[in-house]
Specification:
The protein has 9 helices and 11 strands. With 347 residues, the protein is of the alpha+beta class. Pfam families: PK_Tyr_Ser-Thr.
Protein backbone atom coordinates (compact mmCIF):
# COMPACT_ATOMS: atom_id res chain seq x y z
CA UNK A 1 0.00 0.00 0.00
CA UNK A 2 2.82 2.34 0.96
CA UNK A 3 4.58 1.70 -2.35
CA UNK A 4 1.47 2.53 -4.29
CA UNK A 5 1.06 5.83 -2.44
CA UNK A 6 4.64 6.81 -3.17
CA UNK A 7 4.20 5.99 -6.86
CA UNK A 8 0.97 7.98 -6.97
CA UNK A 9 2.62 10.96 -5.29
CA UNK A 10 5.62 10.71 -7.56
CA UNK A 11 3.36 10.45 -10.67
CA UNK A 12 1.44 13.52 -9.56
CA UNK A 13 4.59 15.53 -9.07
CA UNK A 14 6.15 14.46 -12.37
CA UNK A 15 2.97 14.36 -14.43
CA UNK A 16 2.15 18.06 -14.11
CA UNK A 17 5.32 19.39 -15.79
CA UNK A 18 4.93 16.79 -18.54
CA UNK A 19 1.40 17.99 -19.28
CA UNK A 20 2.59 21.59 -19.32
CA UNK A 21 5.39 20.67 -21.73
CA UNK A 22 2.92 18.93 -24.03
CA UNK A 23 0.61 21.93 -23.98
CA UNK A 24 3.51 24.27 -24.71
CA UNK A 25 4.65 22.09 -27.60
CA UNK A 26 1.12 22.01 -29.01
CA UNK A 27 0.86 25.78 -28.70
CA UNK A 28 4.16 26.27 -30.53
CA UNK A 29 3.12 23.87 -33.28
CA UNK A 30 -0.18 25.67 -33.73
CA UNK A 31 1.53 29.05 -33.86
CA UNK A 32 3.98 27.79 -36.48
CA UNK A 33 1.10 26.42 -38.55
CA UNK A 34 -0.77 29.70 -38.24
CA UNK A 35 2.23 31.76 -39.38
CA UNK A 36 2.85 29.28 -42.22
CA UNK A 37 -0.71 29.65 -43.48
CA UNK A 38 -0.48 33.41 -43.16
CA UNK A 39 2.75 33.46 -45.18
CA UNK A 40 1.26 31.11 -47.73
CA UNK A 41 -1.71 33.40 -48.15
CA UNK A 42 0.56 36.37 -48.74
CA UNK A 43 2.36 34.37 -51.45
CA UNK A 44 -0.70 34.32 -53.70
CA UNK A 45 0.14 37.70 -55.22
CA UNK A 46 0.86 37.69 -58.98
CA UNK A 47 4.37 36.87 -60.14
CA UNK A 48 6.46 40.03 -60.28
CA UNK A 49 9.59 39.11 -62.26
CA UNK A 50 8.57 41.24 -65.24
CA UNK A 51 7.75 44.30 -63.14
CA UNK A 52 11.32 44.46 -61.88
CA UNK A 53 12.72 45.53 -65.25
CA UNK A 54 11.83 48.25 -67.77
CA UNK A 55 10.20 47.41 -71.10
CA UNK A 56 12.35 45.41 -73.51
CA UNK A 57 14.69 44.39 -70.68
CA UNK A 58 15.06 41.14 -68.75
CA UNK A 59 16.57 39.58 -65.65
CA UNK A 60 17.02 35.81 -65.32
CA UNK A 61 18.63 33.28 -63.01
CA UNK A 62 21.00 34.74 -60.44
CA UNK A 63 21.47 38.05 -62.23
CA UNK A 64 20.54 41.10 -60.18
CA UNK A 65 20.61 43.70 -62.96
CA UNK A 66 18.30 44.21 -65.92
CA UNK A 67 19.70 43.76 -69.42
CA UNK A 68 18.24 44.93 -72.76
CA UNK A 69 16.80 42.14 -74.90
CA UNK A 70 19.58 40.33 -76.75
CA UNK A 71 19.86 41.03 -80.46
CA UNK A 72 21.39 38.93 -83.26
CA UNK A 73 25.08 39.75 -82.53
CA UNK A 74 24.75 38.89 -78.80
CA UNK A 75 22.80 35.70 -79.44
CA UNK A 76 25.28 34.48 -82.05
CA UNK A 77 28.31 35.28 -79.89
CA UNK A 78 27.12 34.56 -76.36
CA UNK A 79 24.35 31.93 -76.40
CA UNK A 80 25.79 28.40 -76.42
CA UNK A 81 23.59 25.36 -77.09
CA UNK A 82 23.92 22.54 -74.56
CA UNK A 83 21.30 19.93 -75.49
CA UNK A 84 17.94 19.46 -77.17
CA UNK A 85 15.12 19.45 -74.59
CA UNK A 86 11.98 19.77 -76.72
CA UNK A 87 10.74 19.57 -80.27
CA UNK A 88 7.47 20.34 -82.03
CA UNK A 89 6.26 21.04 -85.52
CA UNK A 90 7.15 24.75 -85.32
CA UNK A 91 10.38 24.82 -83.31
CA UNK A 92 13.10 22.92 -81.50
CA UNK A 93 14.09 24.00 -77.98
CA UNK A 94 17.63 23.74 -76.64
CA UNK A 95 18.88 24.12 -73.11
CA UNK A 96 21.53 26.78 -73.60
CA UNK A 97 23.95 28.93 -71.62
CA UNK A 98 24.33 32.71 -71.61
CA UNK A 99 26.90 34.36 -69.34
CA UNK A 100 26.69 31.52 -66.84
CA UNK A 101 22.87 31.46 -66.84
CA UNK A 102 20.71 28.66 -68.18
CA UNK A 103 18.31 29.81 -70.90
CA UNK A 104 16.04 28.18 -73.47
CA UNK A 105 16.87 28.70 -77.15
CA UNK A 106 13.96 28.16 -79.56
CA UNK A 107 14.93 27.46 -83.18
CA UNK A 108 12.60 27.38 -86.20
CA UNK A 109 12.16 23.75 -87.24
CA UNK A 110 11.11 24.28 -90.84
CA UNK A 111 10.63 27.29 -93.09
CA UNK A 112 7.07 26.16 -93.81
CA UNK A 113 6.23 27.18 -90.24
CA UNK A 114 7.92 30.58 -90.40
CA UNK A 115 4.62 32.46 -90.06
CA UNK A 116 3.66 30.50 -86.91
CA UNK A 117 7.12 30.99 -85.44
CA UNK A 118 7.11 34.74 -86.04
CA UNK A 119 3.54 35.02 -84.74
CA UNK A 120 4.64 33.31 -81.52
CA UNK A 121 7.58 35.68 -81.20
CA UNK A 122 5.34 38.70 -81.82
CA UNK A 123 2.95 37.51 -79.10
CA UNK A 124 5.83 36.82 -76.73
CA UNK A 125 7.09 40.38 -77.16
CA UNK A 126 3.64 41.95 -76.88
CA UNK A 127 2.39 39.91 -73.92
CA UNK A 128 5.38 40.16 -71.60
CA UNK A 129 3.81 40.22 -68.14
CA UNK A 130 3.58 38.30 -64.89
CA UNK A 131 1.66 35.58 -66.80
CA UNK A 132 4.18 34.87 -69.57
CA UNK A 133 7.70 33.42 -69.68
CA UNK A 134 10.46 36.04 -69.74
CA UNK A 135 11.85 36.89 -73.17
CA UNK A 136 15.65 37.17 -73.21
CA UNK A 137 16.16 38.11 -76.86
CA UNK A 138 15.48 37.25 -80.49
CA UNK A 139 17.07 37.13 -83.92
CA UNK A 140 14.39 36.88 -86.58
CA UNK A 141 16.82 36.55 -89.47
CA UNK A 142 18.30 33.42 -87.86
CA UNK A 143 14.89 32.08 -86.82
CA UNK A 144 15.70 31.96 -83.10
CA UNK A 145 14.60 33.49 -79.83
CA UNK A 146 15.75 33.03 -76.24
CA UNK A 147 13.62 32.77 -73.09
CA UNK A 148 14.11 32.06 -69.40
CA UNK A 149 14.77 28.38 -68.63
CA UNK A 150 12.51 26.50 -66.23
CA UNK A 151 13.91 23.03 -65.45
CA UNK A 152 10.61 21.43 -64.42
CA UNK A 153 9.29 21.75 -67.96
CA UNK A 154 5.63 21.97 -68.88
CA UNK A 155 2.59 21.62 -66.63
CA UNK A 156 2.35 18.02 -67.84
CA UNK A 157 5.05 17.18 -65.28
CA UNK A 158 2.96 18.42 -62.33
CA UNK A 159 2.02 15.09 -60.73
CA UNK A 160 5.47 13.57 -61.24
CA UNK A 161 7.14 16.69 -59.86
CA UNK A 162 4.98 16.86 -56.74
CA UNK A 163 5.69 13.16 -56.12
CA UNK A 164 9.41 13.94 -55.71
CA UNK A 165 10.77 14.19 -52.17
CA UNK A 166 11.94 17.78 -52.59
CA UNK A 167 8.50 18.98 -53.73
CA UNK A 168 6.20 16.58 -51.92
CA UNK A 169 5.51 19.09 -49.14
CA UNK A 170 4.04 21.38 -51.82
CA UNK A 171 1.49 18.77 -52.92
CA UNK A 172 -1.43 20.50 -51.23
CA UNK A 173 -4.66 22.18 -52.22
CA UNK A 174 -2.95 25.56 -51.64
CA UNK A 175 -0.36 24.89 -54.36
CA UNK A 176 -2.74 23.25 -56.78
CA UNK A 177 -5.51 25.84 -56.50
CA UNK A 178 -2.92 28.59 -56.99
CA UNK A 179 -1.87 26.89 -60.24
CA UNK A 180 -5.51 26.90 -61.38
CA UNK A 181 -5.71 30.59 -60.47
CA UNK A 182 -2.56 31.25 -62.54
CA UNK A 183 -4.16 29.46 -65.50
CA UNK A 184 -7.41 31.44 -65.34
CA UNK A 185 -5.49 34.69 -64.70
CA UNK A 186 -3.59 34.15 -67.95
CA UNK A 187 -6.87 33.65 -69.83
CA UNK A 188 -8.26 36.84 -68.30
CA UNK A 189 -5.14 38.69 -69.43
CA UNK A 190 -5.28 37.10 -72.88
CA UNK A 191 -8.92 38.08 -73.39
CA UNK A 192 -8.16 41.75 -72.71
CA UNK A 193 -4.53 41.90 -73.80
CA UNK A 194 -2.60 44.91 -75.15
CA UNK A 195 -2.96 43.34 -78.62
CA UNK A 196 -6.67 42.63 -78.52
CA UNK A 197 -8.85 39.67 -77.55
CA UNK A 198 -6.81 36.54 -78.16
CA UNK A 199 -7.87 32.87 -78.15
CA UNK A 200 -5.74 29.88 -77.11
CA UNK A 201 -5.97 27.79 -80.27
CA UNK A 202 -3.36 25.20 -79.24
CA UNK A 203 -5.81 23.81 -76.69
CA UNK A 204 -7.79 21.17 -78.54
CA UNK A 205 -7.15 18.55 -75.86
CA UNK A 206 -5.97 18.53 -72.25
CA UNK A 207 -2.45 17.31 -73.06
CA UNK A 208 -1.92 20.03 -75.67
CA UNK A 209 -3.29 22.71 -73.37
CA UNK A 210 -1.02 21.77 -70.46
CA UNK A 211 1.99 21.67 -72.77
CA UNK A 212 1.53 25.40 -73.44
CA UNK A 213 2.46 26.27 -69.84
CA UNK A 214 5.69 26.00 -67.88
CA UNK A 215 5.84 24.92 -64.25
CA UNK A 216 8.22 27.11 -62.26
CA UNK A 217 10.35 25.92 -59.35
CA UNK A 218 8.15 27.86 -56.92
CA UNK A 219 5.07 26.07 -58.29
CA UNK A 220 3.50 28.71 -60.50
CA UNK A 221 2.30 28.54 -64.11
CA UNK A 222 3.68 30.65 -66.94
CA UNK A 223 2.34 30.69 -70.50
CA UNK A 224 5.14 29.68 -72.82
CA UNK A 225 3.95 28.55 -76.25
CA UNK A 226 2.18 31.44 -77.97
CA UNK A 227 2.33 30.25 -81.59
CA UNK A 228 -1.46 30.12 -82.07
CA UNK A 229 -3.25 33.10 -80.55
CA UNK A 230 -5.59 34.53 -83.21
CA UNK A 231 -7.40 37.79 -82.52
CA UNK A 232 -11.15 38.04 -82.11
CA UNK A 233 -12.44 41.15 -83.85
CA UNK A 234 -15.93 42.08 -82.71
CA UNK A 235 -18.40 42.23 -85.56
CA UNK A 236 -16.37 39.82 -87.67
CA UNK A 237 -16.90 36.10 -88.23
CA UNK A 238 -14.73 35.00 -85.33
CA UNK A 239 -11.65 32.78 -85.38
CA UNK A 240 -11.03 29.16 -86.29
CA UNK A 241 -8.37 27.02 -84.62
CA UNK A 242 -6.78 25.37 -87.65
CA UNK A 243 -8.27 24.18 -90.90
CA UNK A 244 -9.20 20.65 -89.85
CA UNK A 245 -12.24 19.25 -88.10
CA UNK A 246 -12.08 19.17 -84.30
CA UNK A 247 -13.66 16.37 -82.30
CA UNK A 248 -14.03 15.26 -78.67
CA UNK A 249 -15.59 16.61 -75.48
CA UNK A 250 -12.65 18.87 -74.61
CA UNK A 251 -13.34 21.17 -77.56
CA UNK A 252 -16.19 23.62 -77.05
CA UNK A 253 -19.48 22.75 -78.81
CA UNK A 254 -19.12 25.67 -81.23
CA UNK A 255 -15.73 24.29 -82.33
CA UNK A 256 -17.35 21.07 -83.57
CA UNK A 257 -18.75 20.55 -87.05
CA UNK A 258 -22.36 21.74 -86.71
CA UNK A 259 -23.89 19.88 -89.65
CA UNK A 260 -25.05 16.30 -90.15
CA UNK A 261 -22.52 13.46 -90.20
CA UNK A 262 -23.24 12.82 -93.87
CA UNK A 263 -22.17 16.39 -94.72
CA UNK A 264 -18.43 16.41 -95.36
CA UNK A 265 -16.39 18.85 -93.29
CA UNK A 266 -15.41 22.04 -95.07
CA UNK A 267 -13.19 24.71 -93.56
CA UNK A 268 -14.98 27.37 -95.59
CA UNK A 269 -18.40 26.29 -94.25
CA UNK A 270 -17.22 25.97 -90.65
CA UNK A 271 -18.47 28.93 -88.55
CA UNK A 272 -16.01 30.96 -86.51
CA UNK A 273 -16.07 31.40 -82.73
CA UNK A 274 -14.60 33.59 -80.00
CA UNK A 275 -12.72 33.53 -76.68
CA UNK A 276 -15.56 31.73 -74.91
CA UNK A 277 -14.07 28.47 -76.23
CA UNK A 278 -11.32 28.96 -73.63
CA UNK A 279 -13.93 29.27 -70.87
CA UNK A 280 -15.48 25.89 -71.77
CA UNK A 281 -12.14 24.18 -71.05
CA UNK A 282 -11.48 25.73 -67.63
CA UNK A 283 -13.20 23.01 -65.51
CA UNK A 284 -11.27 20.19 -67.24
CA UNK A 285 -7.91 21.93 -66.76
CA UNK A 286 -8.79 22.79 -63.16
CA UNK A 287 -9.65 19.17 -62.33
CA UNK A 288 -6.24 18.06 -63.56
CA UNK A 289 -4.40 20.80 -61.67
CA UNK A 290 -6.25 20.11 -58.40
CA UNK A 291 -5.66 16.37 -58.55
CA UNK A 292 -6.96 14.36 -55.60
CA UNK A 293 -5.19 15.97 -52.65
CA UNK A 294 -6.88 16.57 -49.30
CA UNK A 295 -9.30 19.45 -49.72
CA UNK A 296 -9.71 19.18 -53.48
CA UNK A 297 -13.21 17.71 -53.11
CA UNK A 298 -14.24 20.73 -51.02
CA UNK A 299 -12.86 23.07 -53.68
CA UNK A 300 -14.75 21.26 -56.43
CA UNK A 301 -17.91 21.62 -54.36
CA UNK A 302 -17.39 25.39 -54.07
CA UNK A 303 -16.62 25.64 -57.80
CA UNK A 304 -19.55 23.50 -58.95
CA UNK A 305 -21.73 26.45 -59.96
CA UNK A 306 -19.00 28.21 -61.97
CA UNK A 307 -18.08 24.87 -63.60
CA UNK A 308 -21.71 24.53 -64.70
CA UNK A 309 -21.72 28.05 -66.13
CA UNK A 310 -18.44 27.45 -67.98
CA UNK A 311 -19.96 24.35 -69.58
CA UNK A 312 -23.01 26.14 -70.96
CA UNK A 313 -23.67 25.07 -74.56
CA UNK A 314 -24.40 28.69 -75.43
CA UNK A 315 -21.11 30.64 -75.54
CA UNK A 316 -22.73 33.95 -74.55
CA UNK A 317 -24.07 32.30 -71.38
CA UNK A 318 -20.60 31.42 -70.13
CA UNK A 319 -18.85 33.78 -67.70
CA UNK A 320 -15.81 35.81 -68.66
CA UNK A 321 -12.37 34.65 -67.56
CA UNK A 322 -12.26 37.62 -65.19
CA UNK A 323 -15.50 36.49 -63.55
CA UNK A 324 -14.15 32.95 -63.18
CA UNK A 325 -10.93 34.35 -61.71
CA UNK A 326 -12.90 36.31 -59.13
CA UNK A 327 -14.70 33.13 -58.02
CA UNK A 328 -11.46 31.13 -57.84
CA UNK A 329 -9.78 33.78 -55.71
CA UNK A 330 -12.81 33.99 -53.45
CA UNK A 331 -12.74 30.21 -52.92
CA UNK A 332 -9.01 30.35 -52.15
CA UNK A 333 -9.57 33.13 -49.62
CA UNK A 334 -12.44 31.29 -47.94
CA UNK A 335 -10.40 28.06 -47.74
CA UNK A 336 -7.48 29.92 -46.17
CA UNK A 337 -9.76 31.72 -43.71
CA UNK A 338 -11.48 28.48 -42.75
CA UNK A 339 -8.14 26.76 -42.14
CA UNK A 340 -6.77 29.74 -40.23
CA UNK A 341 -9.91 29.85 -38.07
CA UNK A 342 -9.48 26.21 -37.13
CA UNK A 343 -5.92 26.96 -36.06
CA UNK A 344 -7.02 29.98 -34.00
CA UNK A 345 -9.69 27.86 -32.32
CA UNK A 346 -6.96 25.49 -31.19
CA UNK A 347 -4.87 28.22 -29.56
Amino acid sequence: MGGTAVCGTFGTRCGLPAVLLCLAALLCANLLLYFYLDALYQDTNPLSAHTQCPLRHFKVGTRTTCTPWLQCPEIRAEVRRVKLIGQGAVKKVYLSEWRGQKVALSVLSSEQYTDDFLHGLTMLRALQSAHVVTLVGACEEDGVFVTEYHPLGSALTLDATLAQDRYHWRNSWHTRLQLAIDYVAFLAYLHSSPVGIRVMCDSNDLHKTLSQFLLTSDMRLLANDLDALPEVERGRQGVKCGHHELTGDFAAPEQLWPYREDVQFSDEAMPGYDEKTDIWKIPDVTRFLLGSVLGSDVIHFHLFQIYTECKSNEPHMRPTALEVLSVYRSVYDSMIESQSQRVRDML
